[in-house]
């Protein structure tokens, strides 16, 4: 498969004392996945473990992307974060409280738009707003809904119904609806994968701008390496399933105010991209079979591809740092 990727250059591992040495403190953890597992009954009174002992803390305002091959359990992790599924073990803590079931604190945007077809754009968003603020006067509900609609660039389309909207516009309504309830975390499962490339790029720009401006905390699943590089502060790499693990957490070294059109000129861009592609092409499989010595699922390796092309990639781990 790597022969299909002639431009991939393997990142050289070089220790970077700044990477991975800072373990997130309890006060920094806004959302925390703590030791979750998901198991299903298998034939012969056996059990299939999709993943287990999965730990992931997230800071307030952080944009976290999860990448991994099909079947490693990404959607399951997102469903557990949403409260749509319960973990077989472990817990999810949001702002200091263990979650139990769904909540308007955690808004989900799926690939499909799931809009109410008989309601207008305004009606769809206002419905969500009124679920959040049940006793709010109608004027306030409309004002909040209109603000969210304007944020995603749909002002003027408030009275259209979903059947009158393009796929990109429908997804914008989905985003407006999620943002309108001011969730603590926005959960997105490949939200742009059904869109054409141009619309996808525009919506990525919008989501990025909104999240930076509002400090929204986001957990997003994607198969698109470039999307993860553009949007994420950290990228969680899952090994192949079953018994998938968090292989690494990659810190995005690119500046927060990154510009899509200039991304490929940014120092560190190719080291980061190559690292992610290398992982998907081969390491996601080899690491599933054998994690490195000293691997600690509670503190998976933190990787920060170097800012300098010359340095290529910088790799260190909490555990290695502790041993040093
Ligand atoms: N109800 C179920 N019973 C048994 N196995 C299930 C059930 N639901 C999901 N699985 C299995 O759990 C695994 C993880 O599924 P999940 O959808 O979370 O993976 P994913 O990484 O999101 O995949 P994709 O990228 O294809 O969406 C899959 O192998 C799937 O077959």
For the report, how would you describe the main beta sheet?
Answer: 9 strands, mixed
Number of strands: 13
Share of β-strand residues? 15-25%
Q: Which ligands occur here?
A: adenosine-5'-triphosphate
The general outline is globular
CATH-derived topology of the largest domain: Rossmann fold
Using only C-alpha atoms, the radius of gyration works out to 20 Å
Distance between the termini: 36 Å
* CATH level 4 superfamily of the largest domain: P-loop containing nucleotide triphosphate hydrolases
- Order of secondary-structure elements: EEEEHEEEHHHEHEHEEHEEH
Q: How would you describe this protein?
A:
It is found in: Cell membrane. It is a peripheral membrane protein. InterPro entries: AAA+_ATPase, ABC_transporter-like_ATP-bd, ABC_transporter-like_CS, ABC_transporter_ATP-bind, NO3_transporter_ATP-bd-like, P-loop_NTPase. This is Nitrate/nitrite transport system ATP-binding protein. Keywords: ATP-binding, Cell membrane, Membrane, Nucleotide-binding, Transport. By secondary structure, the protein is an alpha/beta fold. The chain folds into two domains: 2-105 and 185-323, P-loop containing nucleotide triphosphate hydrolases (Rossmann fold), CATH 3.40.50.300; 107-182, no CATH class. Helix content is 31%, strand content 23%. The chain has eight helices and 13 strands. A nine-stranded mixed sheet has the order 1-13-12-11-10-4-9-8-7, sandwiched between helices. A four-stranded antiparallel sheet has the order 3-2-5-6, covered by helices on one side. A hairpin with a 2-residue loop joins strand 5 and strand 6 (97-98). Helix 2 packs across helix 3, helix 2 runs parallel beside helix 4 (167-180) and helix 3 crosses helix 4. The chain is globular. It starts with 12 loop residues before the first strand and ends with a helix. Residues 1-21 and 309-324 have low confidence and may be disordered. The site of adenosine-5'-triphosphate has 11 residues, from helix 1.
């Amino acid at each position: 498969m790597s022969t299909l990727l002639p431009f991939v250059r393997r990142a050289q591992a070089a220790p970077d004392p700044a990477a991975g040495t800072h373990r997130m403190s309890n006060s920094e953890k806004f959302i925390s996945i703590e030791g979750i597992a998901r198991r299903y009954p298998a034939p012969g009174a056996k059990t299939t473990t999709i993943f287990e002992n999965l730990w992931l803390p997230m800071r307030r305002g952080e944009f976290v992307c999860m990448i991994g091959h099909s079947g490693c359990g990404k959607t399951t992790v997102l469903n557990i974060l949403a409260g749509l599924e319960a973990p077989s073990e472990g817990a999810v803590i949001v702002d200091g409280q263990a979650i139990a079931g769904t909540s308007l604190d955690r808004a989900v945007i799926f690939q499909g738009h799931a809009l109410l077809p008989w309601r207008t754009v305004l009606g769809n968003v206002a419905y969500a707003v009124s679920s959040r603020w049940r006793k709010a006067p109608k004027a306030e509900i409309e004002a909040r809904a209109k603000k969210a609609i304007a944020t995603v660039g749909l002002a003027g389309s408030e009275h259209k119904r979903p059947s009158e909207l393009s796929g990109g516009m429908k997804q914008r309504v989905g985003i407006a609806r999620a943002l309108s309830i001011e969730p603590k975390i926005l959960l997105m499962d490949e939200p742009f994968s059904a869109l054409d490339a141009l619309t996808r790029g525009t919506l990525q720009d919008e989501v990025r701008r909104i999240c930076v401006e509002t400090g929204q905390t986001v957990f997003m699943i994607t198969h698109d390496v470039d999307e993860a590089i553009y949007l994420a502060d950290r990228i969680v790499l899952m090994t192949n399933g079953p018994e998938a693990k968090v292989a690494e957490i990659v810190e995005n070294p690119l500046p927060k105010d990154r510009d899509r059109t200039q991304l490929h000129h940014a120092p560190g861009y190719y080291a980061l991209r190559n690292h992610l592609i290398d992982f998907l092409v081969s390491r996601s499989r080899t690491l599933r079979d054998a994690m490195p010595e000293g691997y600690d699922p509670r503190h998976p390796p933190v990787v920060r591809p170097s800012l300098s092309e010359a340095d290529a990639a910088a790799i260190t781990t909490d555990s290695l740092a502790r041993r040093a």
